[in-house]
Amino acid sequence: MVKITFKHTGKETTVEANEGETLLQVAERNNLPIIGGCGGACICGSCCVDIDPDHINLIHEADINEQDVLECLPMCKTTSRLACQIVITKSMDGMVVTIN
Ligand code: FES
Prior knowledge:
Ubiquitin-like (UB roll), 15% helix
């Protein structure tokens, strides 16, 4: 199991994630306040999260489709990613993610 901590609305919630599922699926399964407006199709940008700067290197780079969506988001930072595009791996154990 991989533990992921989500920061949201002034709280922190640590949950268990399975390798191979997406960060969006992990958040939704745990009833965290994240919106997957397009169902994970990398279109809407509503699932944008900020990865803790210490952990951003644990994640594969955004592909061109994800980069295109991120560039359209006004709140996008260098540590912003789309939760629907991040596939959980063992190396992400302990990662901290802020839900926008
Ligand atoms: S759910 Fe729409 S881009 Fe992630």
